[in-house]
Automatic annotation (TrEMBL):
Record-annotated membrane-spanning stretches: 21-42, 62-81, 90-109, 115-135
Matching InterPro entries: DUF6069
Protein name: DUF6069 family protein
UniProtKB keywords: Membrane, Transmembrane, Transmembrane helix
Signal peptide boundaries: none
Pfam families per UniProt: DUF6069
Length: 140
Protein backbone atom coordinates (compact mmCIF):
# COMPACT_ATOMS: atom_id res chain seq x y z
CA UNK A 1 0.00 0.00 0.00
CA UNK A 2 2.70 2.48 0.93
CA UNK A 3 4.43 1.95 -2.42
CA UNK A 4 1.26 2.93 -4.24
CA UNK A 5 0.79 5.98 -2.03
CA UNK A 6 4.40 7.06 -2.57
CA UNK A 7 4.07 6.62 -6.33
CA UNK A 8 0.85 8.64 -6.35
CA UNK A 9 2.51 11.40 -4.31
CA UNK A 10 5.52 11.43 -6.63
CA UNK A 11 3.30 11.56 -9.73
CA UNK A 12 1.24 14.41 -8.25
CA UNK A 13 4.39 16.37 -7.36
CA UNK A 14 5.81 15.83 -10.86
CA UNK A 15 2.53 16.93 -12.46
CA UNK A 16 2.40 20.04 -10.28
CA UNK A 17 6.03 20.83 -11.07
CA UNK A 18 5.43 20.37 -14.82
CA UNK A 19 2.29 22.50 -14.69
CA UNK A 20 4.14 25.26 -12.84
CA UNK A 21 6.97 25.11 -15.37
CA UNK A 22 4.61 25.29 -18.35
CA UNK A 23 2.39 28.04 -16.94
CA UNK A 24 5.36 30.08 -15.74
CA UNK A 25 7.21 29.58 -19.01
CA UNK A 26 4.23 30.57 -21.15
CA UNK A 27 3.58 33.62 -18.97
CA UNK A 28 7.21 34.70 -19.27
CA UNK A 29 7.05 34.09 -23.02
CA UNK A 30 4.04 36.38 -23.38
CA UNK A 31 5.68 39.09 -21.27
CA UNK A 32 8.91 38.79 -23.25
CA UNK A 33 7.02 39.03 -26.56
CA UNK A 34 5.39 42.27 -25.44
CA UNK A 35 8.71 43.57 -24.10
CA UNK A 36 10.71 42.86 -27.28
CA UNK A 37 7.98 44.42 -29.39
CA UNK A 38 8.06 47.49 -27.12
CA UNK A 39 11.85 47.69 -27.43
CA UNK A 40 11.58 47.56 -31.21
CA UNK A 41 8.72 50.05 -31.26
CA UNK A 42 10.58 52.50 -29.03
CA UNK A 43 13.66 52.08 -31.19
CA UNK A 44 11.63 52.82 -34.30
CA UNK A 45 10.07 55.88 -32.65
CA UNK A 46 13.57 57.07 -31.74
CA UNK A 47 14.47 56.97 -35.42
CA UNK A 48 16.25 53.61 -35.64
CA UNK A 49 15.74 51.69 -38.82
CA UNK A 50 14.36 48.18 -38.47
CA UNK A 51 15.72 47.22 -41.89
CA UNK A 52 17.96 44.18 -42.21
CA UNK A 53 19.48 43.35 -45.58
CA UNK A 54 17.33 46.14 -47.00
CA UNK A 55 14.05 44.62 -45.81
CA UNK A 56 12.14 46.07 -42.87
CA UNK A 57 11.38 43.88 -39.88
CA UNK A 58 7.75 44.20 -38.84
CA UNK A 59 7.09 44.80 -35.14
CA UNK A 60 5.02 41.62 -35.05
CA UNK A 61 8.13 39.73 -36.15
CA UNK A 62 9.77 40.54 -32.82
CA UNK A 63 6.84 39.04 -30.92
CA UNK A 64 6.59 36.00 -33.18
CA UNK A 65 10.27 35.08 -32.96
CA UNK A 66 10.28 35.67 -29.21
CA UNK A 67 7.36 33.25 -28.83
CA UNK A 68 8.95 30.62 -31.09
CA UNK A 69 12.37 30.61 -29.45
CA UNK A 70 11.05 31.01 -25.90
CA UNK A 71 8.77 28.05 -26.64
CA UNK A 72 11.81 26.04 -27.70
CA UNK A 73 13.48 27.07 -24.45
CA UNK A 74 10.47 25.83 -22.52
CA UNK A 75 10.62 22.49 -24.35
CA UNK A 76 14.33 22.30 -23.48
CA UNK A 77 13.46 22.93 -19.82
CA UNK A 78 10.81 20.19 -19.84
CA UNK A 79 13.30 17.70 -21.29
CA UNK A 80 16.01 18.71 -18.82
CA UNK A 81 13.54 18.48 -15.93
CA UNK A 82 13.08 14.80 -16.76
CA UNK A 83 16.56 13.85 -17.93
CA UNK A 84 19.20 16.04 -16.28
CA UNK A 85 20.68 15.39 -12.86
CA UNK A 86 20.68 19.14 -12.19
CA UNK A 87 18.05 20.63 -14.52
CA UNK A 88 18.34 24.26 -13.37
CA UNK A 89 22.11 24.37 -13.82
CA UNK A 90 21.93 22.62 -17.19
CA UNK A 91 19.14 24.95 -18.37
CA UNK A 92 20.86 28.16 -17.30
CA UNK A 93 24.22 27.16 -18.79
CA UNK A 94 22.65 26.00 -22.05
CA UNK A 95 20.42 29.04 -22.49
CA UNK A 96 23.20 31.48 -21.69
CA UNK A 97 25.35 29.89 -24.40
CA UNK A 98 22.42 29.93 -26.83
CA UNK A 99 21.71 33.57 -25.99
CA UNK A 100 25.33 34.48 -26.68
CA UNK A 101 25.20 32.59 -29.98
CA UNK A 102 21.96 34.36 -30.91
CA UNK A 103 23.84 37.66 -30.80
CA UNK A 104 26.30 36.62 -33.51
CA UNK A 105 23.92 37.22 -36.44
CA UNK A 106 23.03 40.62 -34.96
CA UNK A 107 26.71 41.57 -35.07
CA UNK A 108 27.29 40.55 -38.69
CA UNK A 109 23.96 41.31 -40.35
CA UNK A 110 23.79 43.95 -43.10
CA UNK A 111 22.14 46.70 -41.07
CA UNK A 112 22.89 50.04 -39.48
CA UNK A 113 24.83 49.91 -36.22
CA UNK A 114 21.79 51.28 -34.37
CA UNK A 115 19.68 48.46 -35.80
CA UNK A 116 22.23 45.87 -34.73
CA UNK A 117 22.26 47.30 -31.21
CA UNK A 118 18.47 47.29 -31.13
CA UNK A 119 18.42 43.61 -32.14
CA UNK A 120 20.97 42.78 -29.44
CA UNK A 121 18.94 44.62 -26.80
CA UNK A 122 15.79 42.77 -27.88
CA UNK A 123 17.57 39.41 -27.51
CA UNK A 124 18.91 40.33 -24.09
CA UNK A 125 15.53 41.63 -22.88
CA UNK A 126 13.82 38.39 -23.89
CA UNK A 127 16.54 36.30 -22.25
CA UNK A 128 16.42 38.39 -19.06
CA UNK A 129 12.70 37.71 -18.75
CA UNK A 130 12.39 34.10 -19.86
CA UNK A 131 15.53 32.40 -18.52
CA UNK A 132 15.07 33.32 -14.84
CA UNK A 133 11.31 32.68 -14.95
CA UNK A 134 11.84 29.14 -16.22
CA UNK A 135 15.01 28.43 -14.23
CA UNK A 136 13.43 29.19 -10.86
CA UNK A 137 10.83 26.50 -11.54
CA UNK A 138 13.44 23.80 -12.16
CA UNK A 139 15.03 21.69 -9.46
CA UNK A 140 18.59 22.63 -8.54
Amino acid sequence: MSVTANTATTNTAAATSTKSLVVGGLTATAIAAVATTAVAGLGKLAGNSLAVNGAPIQLSGFAMLTVVFSGLGLILALVLARKARSPRTAFVRTTLVLTALSLVPDLVVDAAVSTRLLLIVAHLVAAAIVIPAIARRLHV
